[in-house]
Amino acid sequence: MAQDSVGLPSDYQFWMRKLSVWGQASTLETQKDICHHLPQFQEFLRQIYETLKEMDSSTIIERFPTIGQLLAKTCWNPFILAYDESQKILTWCLGCLINKEPQNSGESKLNSWTRGLLSHILSAFRFDIKEVGLFTQSLGYAPADYYPGLLKNMVLSLVSELRENHLNGFNTQRRMAPERVRSLSRVCIPLVTLPDFEPLVEALLTYHGHEPQETLWPEFFDAVNEAFLLKKISLPKSAVVCLWLRHLPSLEKATLHLFEKLIFSERYSLRRTECFMKESLLLKFALKTYFPYAPPSLVMALLQHPKDIPQALRHQPLRRISEMLREWVEDQTHGSCGGPFESWFLFVRFGGWADAVAEQLLLSGADPPAALLWLLAFTYSPRDGSQPRAQTMAEVKAVLGHLRKLLRSPTLSARDLQAAAGERPGGATRPLAGGRLIRHLLLNFLLWAPAGHTIAREVISHMAQTEETAQETIGFLDQTLDRWDRLGMEAPASRRLARELLTELRTRPAQAH
Asked: Which of 145, 326, 353, 359 has the CA that lies 20 to 30 A from 164?
């Protein structure tokens, strides 16, 4: 029994004993005791739900075999169930027990048993509340007739009515009143994780009335968003996009949820990042949704993929992109609606171009064009003003000059490359972003210069002395390999070196901070 309560509130066994004593609250003494303890018991149920919602139903039953007894005792206690708050939290808890795809007869029986308890809650009390009376009054069903089989028909009737409203527009004789739609969304808040209610949740999310204000309850959006992020509910892409566009706090929470997954997963794994992004649906919006002020000509230029252009000719579209971005960024001082961050994010969103700038500057035979130097400085320090950015451009130009000379050298030493990176005038320390930019130029050099292959391990060992710079180098190599795969880049020696370095860095002991 002690093992059963691991992970659950510490007073789990206390409330199990209380429920056994309370029974069905048939005496005045037990009723008084319930009233005295009810606030604490409801808080206990909330803690139970917070624990259960993070697990699937199989894990719940495996870890907490007596949880069903606790919930059943609570459901059959009329004095506890008489309170709306108790009904709501109990419904949430029971929803966690339902397995959407039962794999065996045991899981199917658990689903039936759970639905029976839900039917008991809804039929015994929920339909006595005015706000949920629409389930029976508008459809002609009596509370006593409410059973699991009937639930699906009722949900389908409401879905049909909502969709008919949507299609009929201003035909007021057939439209569902806005206050009724709002009330319906409030009723669904504790029920959103139940499979039978998914069609209704979807219909509410995709329904748009003609009122100037949002019709649905904010708490409904919150509940649906939480259920979706925790994979407690399955919704089509169109419904999820409607949810995020209609309720910005849900979009913000979804974005933070994605960031948390990325931060706590394997760092700097581009393929893993891409998998998370695809699962999240957050790039599924139209580009205009994210960048409402972006010049169409810039967006069209970025939409052209670098792989469709020979490498020797890529400097031409990069120059055009740089000129348009620079005009857009510098126009911010004249009241343009966007901002430096939006400009930067639009550019790096098309990573094929952002990553190609350093390679293009390093491998091009001509003097580094100012447009590409500006683009590289902007990529690493988008919020810099014109003077700091000009200084960064001058430093990058000087480093590139040294590296180009070394490209033609038959032999190299790590000291040569370190000298090429140079020091700032007066011994000043480079800004964090500036140091990262120079390191990435050196890494590009090591991969592309034949003589650089022989000193790559020595240079990287010196460069990646801390965990932070080691992870940064891992990220660069992983991203470079992924981009080469997408571009179909033919560079066997460089590709082999990048893979070897990546493997060695990932398997070596953690560095000191």
From this structure: 145
Rounded Cα distance, 481 and 270, in Å: 10
Burial bucket for residue 478 (CB in 10 Å: 0-12, 13-18, 19+): buried
Q: Could you tell me the residue ranges of all domains in the chain?
A: 3-124, 157-270
Per-residue pLDDT at 129 exceeds 60: no
- CA-nearest of 5, 111, 85 to 48 is 5
Residues 6 or more apart whose CB falls under 8 angstroms from that of 104 comprise none
Which of 231, 234, 240 is closest to 196 using CA atoms? 234
Q: Is the dihedral of CA 491, 495, 496, 501 positive or negative?
A: positive
Whether the CB-CB separation of 190 and 92 falls below 8 Å is answered with yes
Residue 3 confidence class, pLDDT cut points 50, 70, 90: very low
Looking at residue 6, its pLDDT comes to 52
Distance CA 479, CA 456 (A): 18
